[in-house]
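During the second half of the funding period, the structural biology subgroup turned its attention to how the target accommodates small molecules. The most pressing case was pyridoxal-5'-phosphate, which had performed well in the primary screen but for which no bound structure existed. We therefore specified the complex as follows and requested a full 3D prediction, including the ligand pose.
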Amino acid sequence: MARPLIAEINLTALRHNYQLALSQSAASSALAVVKANAYGHGAVAVAQALADLTPAFAVACIEEAEELVAAGIKQPITLLEGFFDSNELPIIIARGYETLIHSDWQLKQLVHYLSHHRVAANSLNIWLKVDTGMHRLGFAIEQVNSVYQQLKALPAINKITLTSHLACADDLSNGATSKQLAQFQTLQQQLNCLVSIANSPATLGYPEAQQGCLRPGIMLYGASPLAPGHALGEQLKTVMTLKTQIISVRDLPIGESVGYGERFTTQKATRIGVVACGYGDGYPRHARDGTPVLVNGKKCHLAGRVSMDMLTVDLTNSPGAQIGDEVILWGEDLSVNEVASYCDTISYTLLTCLLPRVQRRYIK
Ligand SMILES: *Cc1c(COP(=O)(O)O)cnc(C)c1O
């Protein structure tokens, strides 16, 4: 006996998606972004499954990198926000992490550290972030040449990769991306250095961005960041299937309400299934009535507010459904993008918000 809620994670699909990303790279170079517990899929298992394919990984912070190293991952790991405190520098250097530098304060601390400690020559790879228009992290375009030269003059520093992040690449009709790419390419030509610009949507949708090292995240997990119908996006394979079971069924007459706050009221006699999954597992509490849920492969709809451990489904479209029958909350036949659209959010949040309570089961 066990609670039936499981996130089944298809590692073959994950590998397929990585290879699809790599096939778009002009330089045959793509690291795998495994921050936020590999978008909820389990960072260690995902990194291990990709270890013979990918030359490098990227995470948000040193704690995430340390988890991978403790599990035996040997590839270089890029810290996408660099260090938060200079006391991380000795660990970065000892482990060979590749730190990003996005701000003056980091540059100052790095220069100060390197001038007060013995660090082997050419032992540190740096990612230099430029703000090409997203206005979140990165040096202003006018600063980059000077920062690059300062970094280059430090004997401890080996490779410098110029990097930037795209704000609107998931919308192929948004002109902001071409502007960002043009700014980036101008700098690239000036500095003639290694580069990395493409996230998943750019990897799939912007050939101009497919130079240098690609940084695919969400696409590895099979959720296309582009609108449905994009040829490459459609080739992605779903990695996670969140599945569970019906644990109770009741037949309600017209005019009865279900769950907290009586949000859903039956408009006719309705069979309701109670499903073992709730916001305490990461399923969004703000999912609307009508959010699709597969019951025995048939598309049914959420009815009533999501509880901490349970949610309730209108079984009209799966009339024979019984206790113990399979329920899929998202997965191959019900895309996480579709579910997200009913929850006023995106696939990224549904996947990353899946809590540790949900058992991950890995299949090859
Ligand atoms: C998270 C992240 C990525 C991956 O983005 P996706 O849209 O998931 O592909 C790439 N680059 C940076 C800097 C990131 O923070």
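Two results from this model are relevant to the next phase. Residues 176-191 form the longest helix (16 residues). Residues 33, 35, 80, 165, 199-200, 215-218, 225 surround pyridoxal-5'-phosphate (CB under 6 Å).
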